[in-house]
Write a structure and sequence with these properties.
This protein has 203 residues and is an alpha+beta fold. It has four helices and 14 strands.
Amino acid sequence: MPRLAAGLLLPAILLASCAKLGLSGKAPRSADLPTPRQLRAIRYMSRTVGPDGRRIFDRLGQARSCRDFELAMRWNRPPDVRAGPFDQKMVYLTASVPRDLSKDSEVVLSGVIEQGQALSSGGSVWAVRLKDGSEVQAVETASYADKQEEAQQNGGSVTMVHPYTHGRVLCAYGVYQGITGLSLNQKRRVPLVSVLFAMDRRR
């Protein structure tokens, strides 16, 4: 059965991240927000108004594509503004992984699924290919998978459709764990992301 994202709210950790963006005070000063044209393309996604009047996307599971998911996240968490529970800048891993990326950095990952499978523990693991051809291993524990499944009762949007299908795109929010993952051929170490929220889409 498809896993569903929370029907009314972002995962708690994402809401906490947005709360520190100035949404309870003043809006973040960013030079790297999505353009008005880009925002028009995702106007179908639900938004809520913060106390300062700035609207944020509050149902990420509605995203029809990983590109739309990334745009919504870039609006909620501009990459040039420190925010969130760790007072960090969000790093967007779509083209490549920065060589100097610090362990425990908050990241948004988006890449093509080379291979994926369910773990005996109840979680999932994926080999994801970025635009530069590099490989990232993404692992979602059973506890986070269960949180997405529980949201079915709230009438949420479908997040996982065909999560282990080669060629689909995985988009996820998580924490970078360093060069500690295992490559698809199991011969070398690759960047590892611990996934807190994930979706798969056709593009």
